[in-house]
Write a structure and sequence with these properties.
The chain is 33% helix and 30% strand. The chain is of the alpha+beta class. It has a single domain, classed as Histidine kinase-like ATPase, C-terminal domain (Heat Shock Protein 90), CATH 3.30.565. The longest helix has 19 residues.
């Protein structure tokens, strides 16, 4: 039986941001910086886009008054090689993947996440939910 290894602390970064639109570019920048500092830059474009979509969705659908916060965690597992973006928000409501109309500028977030990730999903967490997207090594190339 082949042994698998998981590094002792797979968390690359974790932070909380205000539930306001100004937090989206901050989240993208921090994800890119964390990947770069851990020599995982090959994941940066996809992880940054996924983070942007998930944080935007959390702010639009769970942080209506701007008083709530959004959590962002980036995890790296070595075997198999994956990077996971996890975004938490205070709403227990499931994310809804939509099929936007042709001219609509909204409703494409989870379609983008689905295209860029090997797999995505969600679950209840503490007083809300966590939405995650897994980037696999072969998808990052």
């Amino acid at each position: 039986m082949a042994a698998t290894s998981v590094e002792a602390d797979p968390q690359l970064t974790a932070f909380t941001l205000p539930g306001t639109p100004e937090s989206v570019p901050v989240a993208r920048c921090r994800i890119r910086a964390a990947l770069s500092s851990h020599q995982l830059g090959e994941y940066a474009d996809e992880a940054e886009a996924i983070t942007s979509e998930l944080v935007t969705n959390a702010i639009q659908h769970a942080c209506a008054d701007g008083k709530e916060t959004v959590g962002v965690t980036l995890v790296h597992i070595r075997n198999p090689e994956t990077v996971t973006v996890i975004v938490t928000d205070p709403s227990p409501q499931a994310p809804v993947r939509r099929e936007p109309s042709h001219g609509s500028e909204q409703g494409r977030g989870l379609l983008i996440v689905d295209e860029l990730s090997a797999r995505w999903g969600w679950g209840l967490a503490d007083d809300g939910k966590a939405v995650y997207a897994i980037l696999a090594e072969e998808a990052a190339r």
